């Protein structure tokens, strides 16, 4: 038994006589009629705000506090806390002592032990039972959850995941003095760095004023050597004419725009597949801005995956057709951004920026975003594959992003009681 389950019982009134006018009593014999259980409080203070009850026929409005035992009231020092002065009901599993408020007045207590149906208790214990062999707690019933419950909940948890990314966008917007183009550049650079070089790529992008990026992108072939030079990737010595020209261009731009090379986060090559080498990714990033200098405007106005694929489907410059690193040539092959990588850029960068910008303008674009997401194929990873063994679902990025959020924020931390799917299984009495 834990308090989260008691919160669930109270919020949804899942105990005997919860909706009865006369069948519910406090531990001292007062009749209780629950009119409103109140709103769940996620911050400090009582667990539920603005509840409405009738105690012995008298209407009360105030807060509800929930504990496993009545004595927890004193264990948590609530009797000394002014925030708990307006508690009108103490809901507990076990009543082991009388409880008084700061004014030494008794607080009505409702004990739930013995009032919860055994079938619900069994379902709760079975759902929350930890088993390292299970992919998720409810895996035996996951495939039986009706689409009318499954689909709306996945949409909701997707927007939870999107909200986290959007908050990051909004924080960077403040840091970059409201420059949306600079925000997009920084976040796009971070995505190009992939997991290994994300911090280094973001540091690099933050170190260049976007006004400079805009000027460099209008001069063909100039942005790439500047990015490579500032990242500390241009070799000190080289016999290759193309690289010597890049070094000259970098020194010219560095002096003209007063740029400072060198990063606190060193660019890493170790354990990366060659297509993800920072040399290639920086070349491709530069190519995007040379091809689409007004990328932010395009991002805001576009809602079709096919259009984004054309915009982002660039290739690294000619030098990288025969190289992955400086001075080590190989047989020629084009180094174009794959459709899979551009989809990742869409999911992790462009869509959050689009949503944040729309929200700042008071625009509602949720339906457009959902339409765009359903155009993007399902992401392929071990987490999504785990869910695919449990049930069939649509093969698009809305579902894969939602399932990632579901697994990381609900399943892994054992928050089944906060999950719409877990709540459905408990209510339905699944075993």
UniProtKB/TrEMBL annotation:
It holds the Pfam family DUF2851. This is DUF2851 family protein.
């Amino acid at each position: 038994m834990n308090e989260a389950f008691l919160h669930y019982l109270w919020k949804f009134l899942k105990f005997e006589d919860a909706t009865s006018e006369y069948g519910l009593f406090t531990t001292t014999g007062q009749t209780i009629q629950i009119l409103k259980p109140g709103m769940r409080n996620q911050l400090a203070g009582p667990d539920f705000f603005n509840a409405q009850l009738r105690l012995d026929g008298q209407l009360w409005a105030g807060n509800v506090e929930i504990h496993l035992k009545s004595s927890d009231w004193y264990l948590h020092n609530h009797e000394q806390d002014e925030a708990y002065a307006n508690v009108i009901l103490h809901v507990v599993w076990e009543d082991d002592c009388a409880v008084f408020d700061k004014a030494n007045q008794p607080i009505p207590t409702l004990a739930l032990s013995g009032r919860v149906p055994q079938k619900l208790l069994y379902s709760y214990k079975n759902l929350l039972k930890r088993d390292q062999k299970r992919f998720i707690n409810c895996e035996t019933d996951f495939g039986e959850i009706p689409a009318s419950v499954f689909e709306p909940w996945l949409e909701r948890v997707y927007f939870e995941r999107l909200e986290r990314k959007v908050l990051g966008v909004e924080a960077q917007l403040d840091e970059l003095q409201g420059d949306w183009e600079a925000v997009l550049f920084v976040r796009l650079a971070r995505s190009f760095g992939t997991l290994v070089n994300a911090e280094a790529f973001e540091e690099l992008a933050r170190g260049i004023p976007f006004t400079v990026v805009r000027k460099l992108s209008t001069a063909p072939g100039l942005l790439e050597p500047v990015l490579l030079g500032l990242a500390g990737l241009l070799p000190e010595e080289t016999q290759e004419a193309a690289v010597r020209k890049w070094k000259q261009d970098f020194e010219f731009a560095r002096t003209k725009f007063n740029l400072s090379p060198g990063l606190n986060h060193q660019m890493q090559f170790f354990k990366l597949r060659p297509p993800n080498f920072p040399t290639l990714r920086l070349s491709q990033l530069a190519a995007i801005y040379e091809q689409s200098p007004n990328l932010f405007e395009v991002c805001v106005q576009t809602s079709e995956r096919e259009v984004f694929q054309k915009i982002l489907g660039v290739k690294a410059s000619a030098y990288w057709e025969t190289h992955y690193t400086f001075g080590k040539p190989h047989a020629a092959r084009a180094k174009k951004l794959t459709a899979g990588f551009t989809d990742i850029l869409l999911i992790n960068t462009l869509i959050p920026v689009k949503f944040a910008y729309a929200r700042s303008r008071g625009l509602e674009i949720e339906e457009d975003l959902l339409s765009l997401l359903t155009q993007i194929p399902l992401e392929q990873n071990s987490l999504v594959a785990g869910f695919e063994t449990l049930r069939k679902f649509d093969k698009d990025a809305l579902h894969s992003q939602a399932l990632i959020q579901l697994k990381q924020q609900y399943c892994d931390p054992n928050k089944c009681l906060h999950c719409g799917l877990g709540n459905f299984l408990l209510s339905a009495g699944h075993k």
